[in-house]
Amino acid sequence: MKQATVVGSGVMGKGIAYAFAIAGFKVYVSDIKEDILQKAKTDIENLMEGGYKKGFLKESIYQQAKENLQYDTDLETAAKDSDIVVEAVLEKIDLKVQVFQQLDKICKPEAILATNTSTMSPTEIGAQTNRSDNVVAMHFFNPVHKMKLIEVIRGLDTSDETVSKVMNVSEQMNKEAVEVNEFPGFVTSRMNCLIGNEAMNMLMEGVASAMDIDKAMKLGLNHPMGPLELADLVGLDSRLRNIEYLHETLGEKYRPSPILTKYVKAGRLGKKSGSGFYNYS
């Protein structure tokens, strides 16, 4: 496993590409627009330079990682020779299926196709390809360069060989992997959405301010980040899509907090829009 492709160059895609590159993989990053890719290139290079200047990356790794990265809007060029492809597009099942159907035609037969979904079914996605045994979910965490965990989610047809290879890739990337049998929300998203949604309900009910809810979780329960801070970082639109899916599949306890729906309708999407539960202007 020497060459990887990341499809989608948003926050998660950039982080995954960075992690592959510093682990010694040749990496292609693909997105639909050239200006989006150029921004991703700038952001990844800035992250690498910052890591090198702060002493987190050795010079040899820094230089090699820069050489390892390629950017291309043509998905066929980016993916045809890769050993593993990680999809990191929006949490919309139709979009993910469309990407996987394209990859199924483009990639070599033995290539592993992984989705970075936080909630959706690798079984459903894999069933739309002719290689469901090679389809798996690799759920990375934000920010990828700091977070050690990868959830490896086995679909109904995912082979033992595929899971073994992905666990090895995770180790090459200096990550810790846990194997999860597919169920909506997996382990972390199922818990995280519930905690975050309850924090939003408490804010709406006036139990405490956003800052004090987050402070209580950090100092009282030793969470590194409060649930409302985390929702702002992930993006409130992404969080809403995730919890709507869990509400649909797991039932009433995952009904989205009304304040989350209201903020998304108002365009308050969190850090990326400048305001969410906090103001970032």
Task: Provide an overview of this structure.
With 281 residues, the chain is of the alpha/beta class. The chain folds into two domains: 3-181, NAD(P)-binding Rossmann-like Domain (Rossmann fold, 3-Layer(aba) Sandwich); 187-272, N-(1-d-carboxylethyl)-l-norvaline Dehydrogenase, domain 2 (Orthogonal Bundle), CATH 1.10.1040.10. The protein has helices at residues 11-22, 34-53, 59-68, 75-79, 93-106, 122-126, 160-172, 188-205, 210-220, 227-234, 236-250, 258-265, and strands spanning 3-7, 26-30, 69-72, 84-87, 112-115, 135-139, 149-154, 176-181. It has an eight-stranded mixed β-sheet with strand order 3-2-1-4-5-6-7-8, sandwiched between helices. Helix 1 (11-22) links the parallel strand 1 and strand 2. The radius of gyration is 19 Å and the shape is globular. The protein starts with a strand and ends in a 16-residue tail after the last helix. The mean pLDDT is 95.
Spans of at least 5 consecutive residues with low confidence: none
CATH-derived architecture of the largest domain:
3-Layer(aba) Sandwich
**Which strand order do you get reading across the main beta sheet?**
3-2-1-4-5-6-7-8
Cα distance, first to last residue?
43 Å
- Which CATH first-tier class of the largest domain would you pick? Alpha Beta
User: How many domain units?
Assistant: 2
Mean pLDDT: 95
Q: Superfamily at the CATH H level of the largest domain?
A: NAD(P)-binding Rossmann-like Domain
**Helix and strand succession?**
EHEHHEHEHEHEEHEHHHHH
**Rg (C-alpha, Å):** 19 Å
Q: Would you summarize the structure shown here?
A:
With 281 residues, the chain is of the alpha/beta class. It is built from twelve helices and eight strands.
